[in-house]
Write a structure and sequence with these properties.
32% helix; 14 helices; Dna Ligase, domain 1; D-amino Acid Aminotransferase, Chain A, domain 1; binds adenosine monophosphate; Rossmann fold; 4 domains; binds glycine; alpha+beta
């Protein structure tokens, strides 16, 4: 009797999803891998499925019956995709819609942190432009942070260093009344080192993935704009044991308690953005999916059968992962020269064959067999080695050989670790 082919689907179209597809191809578990909608990078490893709406994707799943579905980005999780796919019988990586509100609404996440005494920046919520103006006017501590409560694709946070700068942002956000439905957060500015903690979790327990650091700013200048992430490296060395204890007991354990108290189903990744302040680790944000470009670092560092990890996790079983890893990885993002304001698009991209680093595609497309840029973060180039130094060297050597006009990348990723 022949066995049915084991199918797996990755939902999403960025470099993170390319790395997730890669995680499935290096495992022997699946003989058919799909990406929806995917991109030209993924097309060399998986069959790309285009779809217009989530119901269309759900119908495709009902028909093709993939065993495993990994949902990469937050928006479909916040829209409830994981719940529907689970009810169709697929094994899904991604939390329920209810739990995804931890990322979908920053106001809600702040309320959870208040209720569970999870350390975070102090905050006030403005429900109207007038309320926001009042908060800005009364403020004496600068800089301060302004955040849109809802999903904003990494573009809804601004650090403002004066009343004048804050009023300017308030004026432009005030022209978009929909932003005030969820509210605008007026938040204390935390100072310290930023790290990305990723855990695999079943909502009761969790295991740490390698600790990573993301470079959120466009460049190293103090007033550089925030981006979706311009690079990352991991494992980040030297986290003090008492800091790790605090992250476990004051943050992760309390999130688990919250999920259990609410009865929320969570099988997937929780990514906590943290600031290591001199008063201990404090939460900047919760994400209910993996980071981009952190995923591109984590997947190659964890030498594990990822197919097995995903299948077990989707059933609620946590794999036992080591707490220290024998490899390191450095990811550098090649972005459009106009990113994050806009993107030129249309540049030809030539990636020479035979490079040692991994090249994950983000905003690329194929036009008449020519690979071109198609948005802000075009490629993520990853070097892997026994230590950060070798990994960094490989990443920069690989990116240096890529021919892509009108692009930019940071030269200082993992420079000081
Ligand atoms: P978020 O989407 O909330 O993680 O914010 C994006 C980025 O803005 C973070 O990664 C930080 O670099 C910065 N940021 C957010 N909140 C704060 C804060 N309260 N204090 C300082 N920086 C912040
Ligand atoms: N690297 C930041 C994020 O994925 O949200």
């Amino acid at each position: 009797m022949t066995q049915r082919p084991q199918r797996a689907l990755v939902v999403g179209q960025g470099s993170r999803e390319h790395a997730l597809v890669y995680s499935l191809t290096i495992s022997g578990h699946f003989d058919r891998i799909y990406a929806a909608p995917g991109n030209p990078g993924m097309a060399s490893l998986a069959e790309c499925i285009s779809y217009e709406t989530l119901p269309e994707l759900i119908r495709w799943c009902a028909h093709q019956d993939p065993l495993l579905v990994i949902v990469g980005p937050e928006a479909p999780l916040v829209a409830g995709l994981a719940d529907v796919l689970r009810s169709q019988g697929h094994a899904v990586i991604g939390p329920s819609q209810a739990a995804a509100a931890l990322e979908g609404s920053k106001a809600y996440a702040k309320d959870v942190m208040r209720r569970y005494e999870i350390p975070t920046a102090s905050v006030q919520l403005a429900r109207s432009p007038t309320e926001l103006d009042r908060l800005i006017d009364a403020e004496t501590a600068w800089p301060h942070v302004m955040k849109q409560s809802g999903l904003a694709g990494g573009k809804g946070v601004v650090v403002v260093d004066s009343k004048e700068a804050a009023f300017k942002v308030a004026q432009s956000w005030g022209e978009r009344p929909e932003l005030f439905t969820g509210g605008i957060l007026w938040e204390e500015c935390l100072v310290g080192e930023e790290i990305s903690v990723h855990v695999l979790t079943n909502g009761h327990d969790y295991v740490w993935l390698p600790l990573t650091r993301d470079y959120k700013r466009l460049n190293a200048l103090p007033d550089a704009p925030n981006t979706g992430g311009m690079g990352a490296f991991g494992p980040v060395p030297g986290l003090a044991p008492d800091t790790e204890d605090k992250i476990n007991t004051e943050i992760l354990d309390r999130v688990m308690q919250f999920l259990q108290d609410e009865g929320f189903l969570y099988r997937g990744i929780l990514y906590v953005g943290l600031m290591l302040t001199h008063n201990g680790p404090k939460v900047l944000e919760f994400n209910v999916r993996m980071g981009d470009p952190e995923t591109e670092v984590i997947i190659p560092v964890v030498d594990y059968d990822w197919g097995e990890v995903w299948l077990q996790l989707a059933e609620g079983t946590l794999p036992s992962l080591p707490r220290s890893f024998e490899k390191a990885a450095v990811a550098v993002v090649l972005a459009d020269e106009r990113y994050p304001q806009s993107s030129l698009g249309g540049q030809s991209i030539h990636v020479p064959p035979g490079g040692k680093g991994l090249v994950f595609h983000g905003a690329t497309r194929m036009i008449d067999e020519r690979l071109e840029a198609h948005g802000g973060r075009i490629l993520t180039i990853v070097g892997v080695g026994p230590h950060i130094t070798e990994a960094r060297h490989q990443a920069y050597e690989t990116i240096g050989a890529i021919n892509a006009p009108h692009t930019q990348y940071r030269r200082d990723i993992a420079e000081q670790t």
